[in-house]
Amino acid sequence: MLFAVYGMGAGSTSIPIYMRLLMCLSYLRFGFEGLMYAIYGNDRPMMPCPSEEAYCHFRSPKTLLLETGMENSNIWLAVLGLTAYMILFKAMSYFLLRWRLSRHRNFAALNYVGRIIKTHFSFTHQYK
């Protein structure tokens, strides 16, 4: 979550290079950039201001994108990043579930704990 909102309000010029690299690994950042660009990008016209306000700083959508550090965001890069994360998470969950359900998995500590529970804490063994 911190990588997704790092640099908000300061723009992207004050973000160190190592933080930019870490921000590229955040799937929340990809989602947030895509959402901000979809709402405020693509040459959106000026937003209305209340008549009682003398000055509206965020009337221009480009100013809002500049202040949030997303002036160079690309919606297709955000969609590609989110798709890559979705494929990665689905593949990881498939293989972990397949490994967990396999009959020949070799996880000795789990087998040892299972034997202790079956021998010492089995309630069905007492009532036979």
Describe the 3D structure.
This protein is mostly helical and 128 residues long. The protein has a domain at 2-86. The chain is 56% helix and 0% strand. It contains six helices and no strands. The longest helix has 27 residues, at 75-101. The model has no long low-confidence stretch (mean pLDDT 80). Keywords: ATP-binding, Membrane, Nucleotide-binding, Transmembrane, Transmembrane helix. This is ATP-binding cassette sub-family G member 1. GO terms for molecular function: ATP binding. The chain crosses the membrane at residues 21-40, 75-97.
Fold blueprint:
Blueprint: H1 2-5, H2 17-23, H3 27-40, H4 61-67, H5 75-101, H6 108-120
Helix pairs in contact: 3-5
Mean pLDDT, to the nearest integer, reads 80
Q: How does the major sheet shape up?
A: none
Class computed from helices, strands and strand pairing: mainly alpha
Shape: elongated
Q: What percentage of the residues does DSSP assign to strands (E)?
A: under 5%
Helix content: 55-70%
Low-confidence stretches: none
How many E strands? Answer: 0
Work out the helix count.
6
Radius of gyration: 26 Å
Oligomer: single chain
User: How many angstroms separate the termini?
Assistant: 54 Å
Order of helices and strands: HHHHHH
